[in-house]
Design brief:
Layout: E1 7-9, H1 21-27, H2 29-34, E2 39-41, E3 82-85, E4 98-99, E5 118-119, E6 122-124, H3 129-135, E7 143-144, H4 151-160, E8 166-167, H5 170-181
Parallel strand pairs: 1-2, 7-8
Antiparallel strand pairs: 3-4, 3-6, 5-6
């Protein structure tokens, strides 16, 4: 019998950076399994119109995940694996999107803001051969956060990536939000 997989996002951005999160997570794993959780994730403006010329930016573009000690992958993400970012360390600004020289945005993911293939503020270059090699295969679980209330947009995205990943049920999130704030009124 096939298992009905249930994933929990067991992470949020404001956790203390004390190096003990994974130990706390591991200590709670049995309780999560009892609740039916089968997987845990630890996980980010319109980019279709250029509004400025080239400019130097300082970005955090190397991800080594030293705490994992290569358990899942020895792959080290670097600047060549990304097409752009929404952060410039020099200005501390997050209200602009910077496309890296020689890179292009993915064209067909969402009409609202261009696309949403970010890894910690960095836009993953899904055309990069090393990224393709690292993320290919059935053993690589890929789950995305696609924040749209519209199921058709999410289905379009899944079609665009040939269903090589899953998406968190953000539509359900919005339904829960509406149910908790509507005072029992009918859904619009």
């Amino acid at each position: 019998m096939k298992t009905n997989e249930t994933m929990i996002q067991y992470f949020e951005w404001y956790l203390p950076n004390d190096g003990f999160w994974w130990k706390r997570c591991a200590a709670q794993a049995a309780d999560l399994r009892t609740l039916g959780v089968t997987a845990v994730t630890d996980s980010p403006e319109n980019r279709n119109q250029q509004i400025g010329g080239e400019q130097p930016v300082k970005v955090w573009s190397k991800f080594t995940f030293p705490g994992r000690k290569g358990k899942y992958s020895s792959f080290t993400w670097n600047h060549t694996h990304f097409t752009g970012t929404d952060w410039d360390e020099n200005t501390k600004r997050t209200d602009q999107i910077y496309r890296f020289t020689g890179k292009q945005w993915d064209a067909d993911t969402d009409p609202e803001k261009g696309n949403f293939d970010y890894l910690m503020g960095m836009n993953v270059d899904l055309e990069n051969p090393e990224v393709i090699s690292e993320t290919a295969g059935e053993d690589f679980p890929a789950v995305g956060e696609y924040w749209s209330k519209e199921p058709d947009r999410m289905l379009h995205y899944l079609d665009a990536v040939e269903n090589r990943m899953s998406l968190f049920d953000v539509v359900l999130h919005y339904q829960f939000y509406y149910a908790s704030t509507s005072g029992g009124g009918k859904r619009p």
